Amino acid sequence: MAADTAIFVSKRLQRAAFAILCLIAAQFVLASCEPEPSAMAARVVLSHHD
Fold it and tell me: Which pLDDT score is estimated for 19?
């Protein structure tokens, strides 16, 4: 019975971990496609001070 419970919990954790990894991957893809305006503004400000 303990083994059945462990398998059930591990399957649920695998699904949750997979969903989190997919969300993280999606965030990286979106970040690489569209750079944040604040990061670009910071670069412009730093380049003007040189």
Answer: 92
Residue-wise pLDDT for 1-50, tens only, equals 788 888 887 888 998 989 999 999 988 888 777 655 555 555 555 555 54
- Output the CA torsion 36→22→12→7 (10° steps): -130
| Residue at token pair 């059945």 | 4
CA dist., res. 2 & res. 38, Å (int): 52
What's the chain's Rg over C-alpha atoms?
Answer: 21
* Rounded-to-integer distance, Cα 21 and Cα 43, Å: 30
